């Protein structure tokens, strides 16, 4: 994290007012890098003096239909900058999605079809609006200018960057040394993301730490097109529920911002005590002094569960409201005492034609509680399966006609109607 420092006032054409210093503090909170900080201070001071908002850009490729809490790390920062008067540009990368971002990849990312991109893009802004102020957000799609660029324009754009500089990118270097294929079209991705900054005349671009190369490309291309270069702000990547990998739907370690309040609350309560403080830093809007005091209290003996409840309630309240957060807490307490959640799904299953009953493994799979019967058997062996509150210890158990509440692990439930 960046250490606190007071920027120099030398060479500034506008004074560093208290509002400018406050804006700088808001910018720096929780970020990994702010580059170049001196240029950002000048932009803030100029904006304060002229009353012209700065243009702050975030591009997101709609590679999946849902946004999770990992995405909100940068969305939260956008909202904070939006709240102090600057213009937020939420850019949907409908064109760049067709290329596929190679950032952090050890292989070529399969490009999406235009149909997939369109479907995903429809949900992106709707979900992002749960964080951003829709009335003060400029929505753009980069196909607006990328499609118009054409083959001639693409060649001219590509001439503004060298292969040698492109190969300085860490993931390209690693793949080249490992003799892992790099497709030529992957070189176009950072160029097109950088060109977005030219088209939008952005003053600041945000992204995760894995986006630093692409963000710097925007600065380079703006200079090439004789624009004032944007500053860049990188935010840490939120580690997923597993405590190992970054939050990702493909890793199944995510918390979706549109999922049910009870599910969101339960997932947040499942993170480790150590990981919880990273979540506080990146997701909470509480004052840093309050978080530091809470951490000190836990170090002195307060139950970390209390802190985790505060975090889960804050996040759930943000997306579902305070009443839903209170209900989610009550539901979580009920579950921890062995109770059944209020909102479990109902599943109707058919008995086999021979009337001999449906095996517990097949029932769990058909009810969507496990991905396979082998996983069902493993959960039975570990004592992780309950039917109507009783632990199932017999892998050969067959259930006959009736209604059952089935539980797998701590959080998976279903009310099964078997007929």
The H/E string reads HEHEHEHEHHHHEHEHHHHHEEHHEEEEE
Number of helices: 16
How would you sum up the global shape?
Answer: globular
Share of β-strand residues: 5-15%
- Tell me which CATH architecture of the largest domain applies here: 3-Layer(aba) Sandwich
Q: Order of strands across the biggest sheet?
A: 1-6-5-2-3-4
Largest sheet descriptor: 6 strands, mixed
Q: What is the total number of structural domains?
A: 3
CATH class of the largest domain, named Alpha Beta
At CATH level 3, the topology of the largest domain is Rossmann fold
C-alpha termini separation: 58 Å
Helix content range = 40-55%
Radius of gyration, whole Å = 25 Å
Q: How is the topology of this model organized?
A:
Elements: H1 18-28, E1 33-35, H2 37-50, E2 55-60, H3 69-83, E3 87-92, H4 114-128, E4 137-141, H5 143-158, H6 163-166, H7 170-177, H8 185-200, E5 204-208, H9 212-224, E6 231-235, H10 261-269, H11 273-283, H12 288-299, H13 304-320, H14 322-336, E7 346-349, E8 358-359, H15 360-366, H16 373-381, E9 385-387, E10 390-391, E11 398-399, E12 402-408, E13 412-418
């Amino acid at each position: 994290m960046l250490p606190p420092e007071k920027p120099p006032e030398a060479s500034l054409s506008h004074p560093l007012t208290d509002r400018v210093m406050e804006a700088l503090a808001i910018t720096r909170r929780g970020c990994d890098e702010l580059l170049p900080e001196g240029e950002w201070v000048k932009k803030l001071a100029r904006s304060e003096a002229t009353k012209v908002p700065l243009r702050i850009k975030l591009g997101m490729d709609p590679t999946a239909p849902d946004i999770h809490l990992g995405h909100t790390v940068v969305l939260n920062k956008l909202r904070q900058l939006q709240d102090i008067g600057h213009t937020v540009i939420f850019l949907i990368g409908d064109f760049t999605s067709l290329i596929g971002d190679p950032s952090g990849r050890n292989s070529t990312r399969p490009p999406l079809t235009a149909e997939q991109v369109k479907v995903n893009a429809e949900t992106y802004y709707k979900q992002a609006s749960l964080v951003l102020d829709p009335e003060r957000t400029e929505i753009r799609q980069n196909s607006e200018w990328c499609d118009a660029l054409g083959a001639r324009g693409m060649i001219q754009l590509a001439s503004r960057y060298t292969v040698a500089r492109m190969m300085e990118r860490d993931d390209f270097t690693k793949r080249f040394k490992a003799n892992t294929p790099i497709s030529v079209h992957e070189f176009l991705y950072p160029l097109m993301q950088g060109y977005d900054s030219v088209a939008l005349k952005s003053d600041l671009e945000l992204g995760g730490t894995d986006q630093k190369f692409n963000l710097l490309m925007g600065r380079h291309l703006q200079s090439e097109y004789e624009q004032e270069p944007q500053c860049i702000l990188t935010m840490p990547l939120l580690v997923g529920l597993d405590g190992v990998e970054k939050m990702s739907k493909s890793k199944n370690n995510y918390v979706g911002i549109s999922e049910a309040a009870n599910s969101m609350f339960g997932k947040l309560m499942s993170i480790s005590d150590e990981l919880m403080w990273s979540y506080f830093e990146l997701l909470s809007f509480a004052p840093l002094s309050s978080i530091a005091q809470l951490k000190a209290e836990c170090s002195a003996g307060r139950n970390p569960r209390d802190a985790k409840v505060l975090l889960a309630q804050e996040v759930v309240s943000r997306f579902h409201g305070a009443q839903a957060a209170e209900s989610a807490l009550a539901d979580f307490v009920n579950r921890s005492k062995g109770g059944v959640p209020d909102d479990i799904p109902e599943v109707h299953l058919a008995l086999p034609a021979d009337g001999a009953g449906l095996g517990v493994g097949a029932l769990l799979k058909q009810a969507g509680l496990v991905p396979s019967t082998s996983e069902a058997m493993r959960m039975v062996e570990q004592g992780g399966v309950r039917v109507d509150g009783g632990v199932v210890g017999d892998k050969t158990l067959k259930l006959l006609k009736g209604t059952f509440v089935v539980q797998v692990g701590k959080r998976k439930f279903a009310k099964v109607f078997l007929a």
